[in-house]
Design a protein that fits this description.
Blueprint (H helix, E strand, L loop, with lengths): L1 E3 L2 E3 L8 E2 L3 H4 L4 H4 L3 E3 H11 L3 H7 L4 H6 L2 E2 L1 H21 L2 H6 L18 H15 L5
Helix pairs in contact: 3-6, 6-8
């Protein structure tokens, strides 16, 4: 059982430290706690659907190989942390800009050095830069 505020969420009887559903169900304010848990393949697939990233793009972000992804049904906390980072960026972007955020992530951006924003998902520094840029755009600070 996982408690977020006053709500209680099941994490699975046999797997008390595994995330099965995106943080919208667990409470995104607790990323620090959630990052220490394992993540199910179902959770990974839900975040791939949210982000619109292909499996190949997603595997390039995660610290696992395609063979490991295909073979396993649950992944260790190192994978969970990357999944949560991707989820945080896409939830913030879609909440701020709607579905047009997906097009922005796939378009080369001068403010980000002429690369596609989704390329920054590969490490924590890039994720922080994306979240900062989303915040700046929300508030109309483009320079």
């Amino acid at each position: 059982m996982y408690i977020c505020g006053m709500k209680k969420y099941k994490t699975g009887e046999n797997e008390p430290n595994m995330l099965h559903e995106p943080t919208a169900d667990y409470g995104a304010a607790n990323y620090f706690v959630l990052a220490g848990r394992s993540v199910s393949k179902h959770y990974v697939q839900r975040i791939m659907a949210l982000s619109g990233l292909t499996l190949a793009e997603f595997i390039n972000i995660l610290p696992i190989s395609i063979d490991t992804y295909k073979r396993k049904t649950m992944f260790q906390p190192a994978v969970t942390e990357k999944i949560l980072e991707v989820e945080e960026v896409y939830r913030a972007g879609v909440a701020a800009f709607g579905e047009g955020f997906h097009a922005w992530m796939n378009t080369e951006n001068i403010a980000l050095g002429g690369i596609k924003p989704k390329q920054l998902l590969s490490n924590s520094f890039g994720v922080r830069r994306l979240l900062s840029q989303i915040g700046r755009m929300q508030h109309g600070v483009l320079a």
